[in-house]
Structure formats: C-alpha cells, structure tokens
Amino acid sequence: MIRRELPKRRVQSFSDVLDRVREIINRVRVGGDQALRELTLQIDGVKLDRLVLEDSYIKERSEVLDPKVKEAIDNVWLQLTSFHDLIKPPNLGGGSEGVEYGIIWKPIRKLGIYVPGGKKAYPSSLMMAGIPAKIAGVKEIFVSTPTRGDLDPAIAYIAQKLQVKNVYPIGGAQAIAAMAYGTESVKAVDKIVGPGNVYVQGAKFLVSSDVGIDAIEGPTELVIIADENANPKNVALDLMAQGEHGSSSMLVLISNSAELLNEVSNLLQGDNEFYLVKVSSLEEGIQIANELAPEHLSLYTSRARELLARVENAGAITLGNTPPALIDYSAGPDHILPTNGWARFKGGLTVFDFLKGISYVRAERISESLVKSAEIIARYEGFNVHANSVGVRYE
C-alpha cells in the first residue's frame, strides 16, 4: 500500500503481552530448569532434552557448514573487527590544579546474547553482538537461541570463533529470564543484548532493573532521502529489502522530485505500507528525518556528504548509492540499531556497550581553592562531615 503522508513516530508498546511476560519471568525465577522445559514445550512445542549444548556437538554442527558460507563469515568478521577496533576507546589520564585524574575502560564480565531462531536462523545477529563484545574484552559470553531440531551450522561456527562459554537452545521471554536470573543450567549474566519479538523485548524491559540491556528493539525502520539523481529501481529495492523484516516495518521515501516518487511507486511490490512524501527541499527532508529518528537513514543524493552534517537523529546512515542492507551484513558498523525513536538519544551497538568507564583521581598537592570550594559546597548542601573529611586532609 502506497501512502502519500508521513508516518507517525512509533513507541514500543507491551500492553498486550507484558502480564504474560511477567508471569513467564516469575515462573523461571521460581522453577528454574523445570520451568524452562515446561514453558518451551508449552509455547514453542519443543521438548528440550538438554538445556546446554555440548562443545562437541557445536563443533560437529559447525563442520557441516557450507565452505562458501564459512568464507563469507570469515570475511565479514575481519570487516566488523576493523570497525570496532577503530572506535575502541583508550585509557586516558591528565591533571590540573594538583589533581591527577583519568578514566580506565573495563569490560563487563558476563554477557548474554539472544539470537532469534526457530523458523529462520540469524547468524549475522550473533556476529554483530559478539564481535564488539570480544574486542571490548568480555571474557564470558553465553548465547541463547531457539532451535527446532539441530543448531544452525553458521551459528555454531560463529559461536566457536567467539569462544562462547555455553549455548542454550532456548527462546522467547523464558530465555531472557534465565540469562537475567540464572537457573541450575543457565548462568546469570551482567548484560543481555540482541533482537527478538515483542515477548523478548518485553522481557528485556522487565529485567532491565536487574541486568543491563542494549535497548528495546522494535520493527525495522528505513527513511530514504533521495533527489532526482537517485536510481528508482535501487530505491524501490532498498525499501522492499527492509520490508522483508515484516509488515510492521516503517518504510519511508522522502524526495524533492515528484518524478522519482512516481517511478518508485510503480516499482514497489509486497504487502508492506510504503510512505512516499514530496518535500520542497532536501533540507526539509532532513528535518523530517530528525523528527522520525529512524533506525536506518539513506541519503541517496548527490549532496550526501553535505547533508550528513545536518543529521542529528539516526541509528546508521548510508551515503549515495549505498544499499542500507549492506549495514545489515558486511559494511562494518553494527546492525543492532535503535528503533522507536531511540535514535534521539542512542546510537547503534558498539564496543562502548560492553565497556564501563571508571574514573580515578589522586590529589596529593591539590590547590587550596579546590579544597575550599569542595568544603563550601558540601556545607551548603548540609554535608558537614563531607566537608571535614576534605578539609582535614589539607590543613
């Protein structure tokens, strides 16, 4: 369906599932492994003979992977590693007024990665979450992914490359609960990342008071800003490609060219809703994109570099004739990106999501003015012992 209007920015709503998700989480917290088995049989129709997949089995599954797929994974691995290596922050130190200060970056200890599965396998999501975690220095990585039979060979291969501690054949809200709170077989982690359906995201939301999460990921979003120089066929392909994620995907084309909009409209196919919007200028298109704060933003114009500087809110941006789907697989930046307008305050997954910045100070010869300032402000706030603990050191 073609619409000639702008979509409304969506907000993730769990109203229909949150009570059920809360019930699942509570059952796992109380019932442990037995609850996982019962819930997986009840919800997914899968009887779990084992809750942890043995290393020998994972190795066996990885060995049946098509060599061409293995080579492609190795190639993408190098590209993703190159990107995340580039942005890994250094430890920094300096000082002023007699105070030595700095920041050191430490990785989280235990990470849980959720990889959607069941009808389809998504090995790319495991790479996108696992590689920046490894570069950050996370020592213990655990993966939960639902299976209906054998573990996907590509996921097995990537799990081996990541040196994953345990792989759990568990899906849904029960998998999130297990990794958040632990069971007899599933290890509790410090943070959980990864995409998933509304039950998975609802579970991440509910456990986020006890463990870290990356974000609440909703349906895919793509906004394309294109001018008269854009190839209509490519634009249509980009929109339909992101539409493969589901009928709830937000797919928007904004252009100052009525001709381009009409040509793209004639090429679009499928059950998705496509929003094709005419604007008076590309600058107006950027303003709209900043309001929508989309997951993917494509600047398919001859002025892409110039317009890039005007973008304030987007998960990831492709420039010129670059397909957004390239970010989904092999460009380098992560495809785990903010949705639901979260790009207003958050970027895509990076090594920073697995690091903690710990600041430090040493003040042996601090200036008198800083000592007095600390004392004055502490007493102003009513914390006299704070003031005394500072003042007595430097009398």
Question: What do these coordinates show?
Answer:
By secondary structure, this protein is α/β, with parallel strands linked by helices. It contains 14 helices and 14 strands. The protein has helices at 18-44, 55-62, 67-87, 123-136, 153-162, 172-181, 198-207, 232-243, 258-267, 282-292, 304-308, 325-329, 368-380, 384-391, and strands spanning 2-3, 92-96, 99-107, 110-114, 140-144, 166-168, 191-193, 212-213, 221-226, 250-255, 274-278, 296-300, 316-319, 355-362. The strands form three sheets. It has a six-stranded parallel β-sheet, sandwiched between helices. A five-stranded parallel β-sheet has the order 6-5-4-7-8, with helices on both faces. A three-stranded antiparallel β-sheet has the order 2-3-14, with no helix packed on it. The longest helix is centred in the first third of the chain and has 27 residues, at 18-44. The model has no long low-confidence stretch (mean pLDDT 94). GO terms for molecular function: histidinol dehydrogenase activity; metal ion binding; NAD binding. InterPro entries: Ald_DH/histidinol_DH (IPR016161), Histidinol_DH_CS (IPR001692), Histidinol_DH_monofunct (IPR022695), Hstdl_DH (IPR012131). One of its GO terms (biological process) is L-histidine biosynthetic process. Belongs to the histidinol dehydrogenase family.
